Structure formats: C-alpha cells, structure tokens
Amino acid sequence: MADDTHIGHRKRMMDKFRRFGLAVFDDHEALELLLYFAVRQGDTNPTAHRLMRRFGSLHAVLEAPAEQLEQVEGVGPRTADLLRLTFALFARYRADVARMERLCDKLNTYERIGAYFVPQLSTERDEVLLAAYLDGAGRVLKCEEVARGGHAQVAVDAYKIASSALFCQAAGVAIAHNHPNGKAVPSAEDIEATRALERTLAGLGLQLVDHCIVARERYCSLFQLRNSRMGMGMGRR
C-alpha cells in the first residue's frame, strides 16, 4: 500500500509551484521538489537538507559528482542521475539561449538595427553613443557604450570605435545615439561625424553598416535616408 503520509504535502507543494513558480521557495524546498521525480513516495525534505548541509549551496549540489552525491543518506543512483541531468540540461539551455541570441542579433537590415538599439537608448536621459561590432553575416560580436554626453551632444570617437572593431575582429560596425529631448532626425553634425567615421573605418577595411538615431521609441536610419535618396537600399542576407 502506498505511503499516504506525505502525499498531501507533495500535492500542496506542487500546487504552490504551479501557482507561483519557483521564486517563492527556499533553495532546500526547490531541491525537495526536484527530488519528487526520483523518489516516488515519502518525505524528500530531510534528504534536501542533508544535501544542502553537505555541499553548502544549491548550485554546489547540482554540480557535485555522482559519487559524492551518493555518499549522502537518502541519495541513490536514480537521485544522483536526476541531479546530474538537471545540471547538464541547464548548461545545455544556457548554451542554446546564447546561440539563439547570437543568431537573432543579426543586424543586416535597417529594421533589425533599429529594433536592436531602440530598447537600449529609448529611456536614456543623457545622449549616449553605442557601437555594435558585427561579423561578416551581421551577427553582434560585442556592443558597448562608446561615449556619454549631456542632453544635447555626444562625441563620436572614431579611434575608439576603430580600435574596438579591430580587437573584436569585426567586419562591420553599426552605431546609434539618442536625442533625449529631440526628434529622431539626424543633425548636420550627425551627418558629418558619420562621414568621418565611415572614412576611418574604410581605411582599415571595415564597413560602417548604419548610424541609427533614437528618440524615445522612434528611430531613424541615417543610411536608409541616404540610400533612399540615391535609389538604393540595404540588402537582406
């Protein structure tokens, strides 16, 4: 006959998880929940506490080798396998997210460049210049804040941008800055600074892909404006 002693407790714990997620549980309680899937009946709370005492933290439990886990009372091969699999799946998850983010940050259209920079600049009160360094397919290798100014102007440091691009072994650069109290329209200074940066990068065999101007949730692609006047557009790759 099944041990009914902790069936109600398990149900309450799982109902709580379904309603509120894992954030409302202490680390040992999260571990207790996980152990339900290896220990089909009975109280897993004491085992969770023993694991936490033995290894000191939840992440240390998940990282522990199977042979060390099995030295803890209440932990057999099935439980050790579950803990090891959980950690391995988490590592696989992080790698997959990183890979997908890298692929999604493919800045090869004006729309994608705008969508990439707007969330980073729309709430800034100071004028900020960002540079994204891209590989040959337009994927972001690195994005950094190049300069921060007052409410009206920020300098385009061509040397710093070029140095960072070479360090990243980038093929191209997309830059963006915001107009905190203005419109998403390039000024004469923006246009001249863009031309100067474009010349500097071209001299190093690098491409300036675009200069995006952000004002709150709106943006303007300086290169799209320029190319539309010339009857050209950025191709999709």
Task: Explain how this protein is built.
This protein is of the alpha+beta class and 237 residues long. Helix content is 49%, strand content 15%. The chain is elongated and about 75 Å long. The longest helix has 28 residues, at 77-104. The mean pLDDT is 87. Helix 2 packs across helix 3. It contains ten helices and five strands; from the N terminus they run H-H-H-H-H-H-H-E-E-H-E-H-E-E-H. Strands 2-1-3-4-5 form a five-stranded mixed β-sheet, sandwiched between helices.
List its salient traits:
single chain; alpha+beta; 5 strands; elongated; 5-stranded mixed beta sheet; 237 residues
Arithmetic mean of pLDDT:
87
Strand percent estimate: 15-25%
The residue ranges in which pLDDT falls below 50 over 5 or more consecutive positions are none
What is the number of strand segments?
5
Q: Which strands sit side by side, in order, in the main sheet?
A: 2-1-3-4-5
Shape descriptor reads elongated
Q: What order do the SSEs take from the amino end to the carboxyl end, as H and E?
A: HHHHHHHEEHEHEEH
Spatial gap, N to C terminus = 64 Å
Q: What level of helicity do the residues show?
A: 40-55%
Cα Rg: 27 Å
The computed structural class is alpha+beta
| Number of continuous helical runs | 10
The main sheet comes to:
5 strands, mixed
SSE blueprint:
Blueprint: H1 7-20, H2 27-35, H3 45-55, H4 58-63, H5 66-69, H6 77-104, H7 110-121, E1 128-134, E2 140-148, H8 158-167, E3 172-178, H9 188-202, E4 207-215, E5 218-221, H10 222-229
Parallel strand pairs: 3-4
Antiparallel strand pairs: 1-2, 1-3, 4-5
Helix pairs in contact: 2-3
